[in-house]
Design goal:
The complex is a heterotrimer of chains A (285), B (267) and C (235). Chain A is α+β, with helices and mostly antiparallel strands. In chain A, 35% of the residues lie in helices and 22% in strands. Chain A has a single domain (20-244), classed as 4-Layer Sandwich (Glutamine Phosphoribosylpyrophosphate, subunit 1, domain 1). Chain A contains 8 helices and 10 strands. Chain A is globular and about 55 Å long. Helices cover 27% and strands 28% of the residues of chain B. Chain B is built from 5 helices and 13 strands. In chain B, the strands form 2 sheets. In chain B, strands 1, 4, 5, 6, 7, 8, 9 and 10 form an 8-stranded antiparallel beta sheet that branches. In chain B, strands 11-2-3-12-13 form a 5-stranded antiparallel beta sheet, with helices on one face. In chain B, strand 12 (235-242) and strand 13 (245-253) form a beta hairpin. In chain B, helix 4 (191-201) packs antiparallel against helix 5 (211-228). Chain C has a single domain, classed as Glutamine Phosphoribosylpyrophosphate, subunit 1, domain 1 (4-Layer Sandwich). Chain C has a 5-stranded antiparallel beta sheet. Chain C is globular. Chains B and C meet through helix 3 and strand 10 of B and strand 4 and helix 1 of C. Chain A: Pfam families: Proteasome, Proteasome_A_N. Chain A: Keywords: Cytoplasm, Nucleus, Proteasome.
Chain lengths: 285, 267, 235
């Protein structure tokens, strides 16, 4: 029934100093389809893969606009994401109503983190089972934040979460240095190329028309309110991205060791506390 | 209100936890409580102020091509008594906002405590983001409008001036009802009648004032106000805000000349 | 004081200070005219913000762009106008988030009515006129009273000179009291609507001290909003 005797409750510590329930919540993020966030000097981009749950259903919305300057991309339990996005929207609206100004991204995420943390510290709550990539633009420029169910948040240069996101992270890692100074079109193409790497190989080859990839792209930046790109724009960028180079290195056999689909609870009890796997690259502040 | 998980549930006892809640839990539900003096009737019933008691008179603000200037004399009166003669009514809020306050001085001090607290909160975030003048003016309209809607207004009339993020000057007036507007000249009190027409008359068409013109006009207007407004004193302070920062200068002395008084006859 | 039974409590008074009863309202003047055509609507408002004999500002826009197809003109108590329009903007953004589409002019009109009626017993002291393109692509004007009564119209004047302007519109746009056969009545084009709106303001500025300085005219079509400015007398 239990994976071990210390995961009966969120508030129970393991002797190794771990909160197993919180770590299980982190696993929920890896069940969602992948999403990528990255930025250049004045644009932040979110790219999400939204595969329908079955042939019969429409795909879930993966990117949720919060305000004109901010949006989130989700991986994990969609219902939890809806609660969080409702909170974020309310905060942004209140802020705009009182101050006639957009909510500074860093402050909003700090407050979101504070809200999410309380659920990891009391027995009648459960952690949110959703990971977020936040793309926002404020007076300090574009931001990409990763927020995890453990309520930790990271200020990233680029990142990816969700199933098989490791290959997207590998792509981002390799191209990280070119992001800052590249054009808006280039950064979108990088995002698409990164996410194409997370597709299983067979799917990647069998699909030719852009709509079959079901990619959603959103951008926000200088003089650019948060916008989810249309089907036509997606097709255009997908075309360009493909022309620009092979998508993130196709997953080699034997690469499966990095697969983060694997539950993180290590079999080795002496592994010690495991920090959440972070970010390709995080900013200093 | 951040963590209002169980908004419908009433606490089990006064200040106690609601069902499903914990007493004084970290980050738990915080019941917003008004201070006792606002909710409890005193020995003579509940009273609200219906007029200003200790008052500051005019504030004058002028926007020019590189920033804004705010001026106010240093007198705070108690009725016709010139009660406090050396009080700054132009305040530096942060490095890009100035605020000039007139009306009930106690209310101004009260709102200033609130604003100062907000500036400290801004600094606590430690993210180099400071409030902008437009944001402060908007917040003031929300606060003042709320108070007037509860028929318990703050008897103040303020001028908010400063420089926006992109370097453009900003100047606005917010009154006790939450009425707000922006313009190149705004004033409160008697300056509205005496100084505003003077400044408007000198405005070049399709062009902003220069810093030199603005300071000349301030000097002239403070002089006129001193001569004609009985609730004015001859000393005044001037706040200047430019993209490079802001500060309050002075006190300056009005260039008074009463030699003509001897020539006035027939009274 | 004696009515409360506190005779021993002296009624202190600060010398020289008047004790007026606080009024939460203030009239800040301003007029609005809106004229709807088949596929356009024109809405105009002056830019004077005043109270009593003071002119606070000569260039305060009273037109609020709520969506690419809807503009609200609001005058009266300026503090109430600011509060009401702020609330409308918040509610419209929430609508956009929950329903994934921009509010239609008709929906905005209904919401404005309800928002105003919410304050039935402490009303927003404002005269609102809402102009926009409706869901069929036709120009439409809605007018309101301060407690939220809402009426759909094709032309309407409101604000401090509303009573002066409405009869002019009745004649020029509604063709009331005109002895001309139907065929000879001038058709309502965009140009004519702008011209009539401009003329009414020029006339109003002559008679109403709360209307003047300049007029902002918004011409709304399905392609967007075109803005024009007209100078009025400044006294």
């Amino acid at each position: 029934m239990f994976r071990n005797q210390y995961d009966s409750d969120v508030t129970v510590w393991s002797p190794q100093g771990r909160l197993h329930q919180v770590e299980y919540a982190m696993e929920a993020v890896k069940l969602g389809t992948a999403t990528v966030g990255l930025k250049n000097r004045d644009t932040a981009v979110l790219v999400a893969l939204c595969k329908p749950a079955s042939e019969l259903s429409a795909s879930q919305r993966k990117i949720i606009p919060i305000d004109d300057h901010l949006g989130i991309s989700i991986a994990g339990i969609t219902a939890d994401a809806r609660v969080l996005s409702k909170y974020l929207r309310a905060e942004c609206l209140n802020y705009k109503h009182s101050y006639d100004f957009t909510y500074p991204v860093t402050r909003l995420i700090t407050n979101l983190g504070n809200k999410m943390q309380t659920t990891t510290q009391r027995y009648d709550r459960r952690p949110y089972g959703v990971g977020l990539l936040v793309a926002g633009y404020d007076e300090k420029g574009p931001h990409i934040y990763q927020v995890t169910p453990s309520a930790t948040f990271f200020n990233c240069k680029a990142n990816s979460i969700g199933s098989r996101s490791q290959s997207a992270r590998t792509y981002l890692d390799r191209n990280l240095n070119s992001f800052l100074d590249c054009s808006k079109d280039d950064i979108i193409c990088h995002g698409i190329n990164a996410i194409l790497g997370t597709l299983p190989t067979d799917e990647h080859q069998s699909r030719d028309t852009p709509s079959q990839y079901s990619i959603t792209v959103a951008i926000v930046g200088k003089n650019q309110p948060f916008k989810i790109l249309s089907e036509e724009e997606n097709a255009k960028y997908l075309e360009w991205a493909k022309a620009r180079g092979a998508p993130a290195d196709p997953r080699r056999p034997g690469d499966d060791d990095d697969d983060d689909n694997r539950p993180s609870t290590s079999d080795d009890p002496d592994a010690g506390p495991r920090d959440p796997q972070v970010a390709v690259a995080t900013e200093e502040r | 209100m951040l963590n209002n998980y169980n908004g419908m549930a009433q606490p089990l006892w006064q200040n106690g936890p609601a069902p499903g809640e914990f007493y004084n839990f970290t980050g738990g539900q915080t019941v917003q409580k008004l201070p006792r003096e606002l909710t409890t009737a005193g020995p003579y019933g509940t009273k609200r102020s219906t007029a200003a008691i200790t008052t500051g008179s005019s504030v004058l603000g002028i926007r020019y091509d590189g920033g804004v200037m705010l001026a106010a004399d240093t007198l705070v009166s108690y009725g016709s008594l010139a009660r406090y003669q050396n009080i700054d009514r132009v305040f530096k809020i942060n490095k890009n906002i100035l605020l000039g306050g007139s009306g009930d001085f106690a209310d101004i001090q009260s709102i200033m405590r609130n604003i100062d607290q907000k500036m400290i909160e801004d600094q606590c975030y430690d993210d180099n983001i400071e409030m902008k003048p437009k944001s402060l003016a908007s917040w003031m309209t929300r606060v003042l409008y709320n108070r007037r809607s509860r028929m318990n207004p703050l008897y103040i009339d303020v001028v908010v001036g400063g420089v926006e993020q992109n370097g453009t000057p900003y100047l606005a007036n917010v009154d006790l009802r939450g009425r707000a507007y922006e313009d190149f000249v705004v004033a409160t009190g008697f300056a509205r009648h005496l100084a505003v027409p003077l400044v408007r008359e000198n405005k070049p068409k399709d062009k902003e004032f220069t810093a030199e013109e603005a300071s000349q006009l301030i000097r002239k207007c403070m002089e006129v106000l001193y001569y004609r407004d009985t609730r004015n004193s001859s000393t005044y302070t001037v706040g200047v805000c430019t993209p490079n920062g802001c500060g309050v200068e002075g006190p300056y002395q009005v260039n008074e000349n009463w030699t003509f008084a001897a020539t006035i006859k027939g009274y | 004081m004696s009515s409360l039974g506190f005779e021993q409590f002296p009624d202190y008074q600060v010398p020289g200070v008047k004790h007026p009863d606080f009024s939460p309202y203030e009239s800040n003047g301003g007029s609005i005219v809106a004229i709807a055509g088949d596929d356009f609507v024109v809405i105009a408002a002056d830019t004077r913000l005043s109270s009593g004999y003071n002119i606070h500002s000569r260039n305060q826009s009273k037109l609020f762009k709520l969506s690419p197809k809807t503009v609200l003109g609001s005058t009266g108590c300026w503090a109430d106008t600011l509060s009401l329009t702020g609330l409308m903007k918040v509610r419209m953004q929430s609508y956009e988030h929950t329903h994934l589409r921009t509010m239609t002019t008709d929906a905005v009109a209904q919401m404005l009515s309800i928002t105003m009626y919410n304050r039935r017993f402490f009303p927003y002291y404002v005269s609102n006129i809402l102009a926009g393109i409706d869901k069929d692509g036709k120009g439409v004007v809605y007018s309101y009273d301060p407690i939220g009564h809402c009426e759909r119209a094709t032309y309407r004047a409101g604000g401090s000179a509303g009573t002066l302007l409405q009869p002019v519109l009745d004649n020029q746009i509604g063709h009331k009291n005109i002895n001309l056969p139907a065929g000879e009545l001038p058709p309502l084009t965009k140009e004519r609507a702008v011209a009539v709106a401009s003329d009414t303001f020029i006339s109003a500025a002559e008679r109403d001290i709360y209307t003047g300085d300049s007029v902002l005219i918004n011409v709304i079509t399905k392609d967007g909003i075109e803005e024009k400015v007209l100078q009025l007398r400044q006294d």
